[in-house]
Amino acid sequence: MRDLYVKTPQALEALLAELRRVGYEIKDLRKDEFRADRGVPVSEMEEKGWSLWYASLPDIRHGKCKSCGSVISVAGVRFHGHKCEICGEVTYYDLVDGSTMKFVFLNNRERNFLSPKLKMRVKRWDVEQEDIYFYYEFLEGGLSVVTGNQATAYLNENKRLWQVIEEDGQKLLKVRYSLYWDRDTAAIEAYDSYGHYWNHSIVKIWDGKEYGELDHLPIPESMNIFETWHWSPLQATPYLHERILSAAGQVSDKGYYYQDGRSFFMASEWKEMAKFVRHFTVLNGDRFDDAWPKFRSSGPGGIDDLAHFCHGNPVVENRPNIGNILVAASKLIEGKPLTESEITEAVRGVESEEGVDLIRGFLGKKR
């Protein structure tokens, strides 16, 4: 477990002192402003097993300029046109000659998932004049991206928002596009873009050593700390499995997972849960160690098996999830068979409020 579960006040005092010595900043979550705004009393935090301390390593993320090799501030390093404070070279451009952008025109009409979009190649972005110039060609780009006559028709529907110019013998589409995008004044809204210019990397520096952005440090970068003496040991209730899953960083809602039986829970997750079971519940830790290797590895199946180990009549959450609609639709399009559970959960998803909104969005209908 990355989080720490402390058994006594004396152990907590020693732990916090050691973490501060190593270099962690410690935040007392009893005084957290967000929790205070919600009016949560400290007694409730303690009794319900909320994390009460948060430890994090401060100021470990930095930028690194590829031109001069200097370690620089990470603030703004990935903002279009940002310059290295040491050598003055640009560290990042969001759009350059050859970048591609998928976008829609902002014409005050209601849009849905299938509304037309354009994908075009960027010539340049004049941030001072707040104009972007595209090569006058329509690229293919997946669902709802239009090309050919459809793209021309879409342009004509929005002709007040662009103009065609010629530059060095090339036909370009000129559109207003500000560095500081504002829906009220913008002509287009970008969905995605590719082909950025990177002249920096992100590094982490700890204890005098440099690590890559995705590298793991020898110690956790952050952790939550729990005072277990307020609530441990947990009794065998219909909801105990939720606490055990949460302690291992897992979701207890069966609807969250794939419904086709594919593996999700690995031995490492079960072993993390086993630690929690042994130390912080009334359940028999030896029995759990013998039982979990026989649990199903799928998300829904594993949750059911754990829940029934914890209590004879558990209450297991299984909320409708629109993700199950999308997975089922994708498999049908690809000609793949659906399991009975996938069909059931896709139907439940369609019948849910979120599912109705999703379908209406596809069809472009209002409530």
Structure report:
- This protein has 367 residues and is of the alpha+beta class.
- It folds into four domains: 1-57 and 219-232, no CATH class; 61-90 and 200-212; 95-195, no CATH class; 322-363, no CATH class.
- It is 30% helix and 23% strand.
- The chain has helices spanning 9-22, 33-37, 42-47, 148-157, 240-247, 267-280, 285-291, 299-310, 322-333, 340-351, 353-363, and strands at 4-6, 25-28, 53-56, 61-65, 71-72, 82-83, 90-93, 100-105, 118-126, 131-135, 162-167, 170-176, 188-194, 197-198, 200-206, 209-212, 222-227.
- The strands form four sheets. It has a six-stranded antiparallel beta sheet with strand order 11-12-10-9-8-13, with no helix packed on it. It has a four-stranded mixed beta sheet with strand order 1-17-3-2, covered by helices on one side. The chain has a four-stranded antiparallel beta sheet with strand order 5-4-15-16, with no helix packed on it.
- A hairpin with a 6-residue loop joins strand 6 (82-83) and strand 7 (90-93).
- The chain is globular, with a radius of gyration of 27 Å.
- It starts with a strand and ends with a helix.
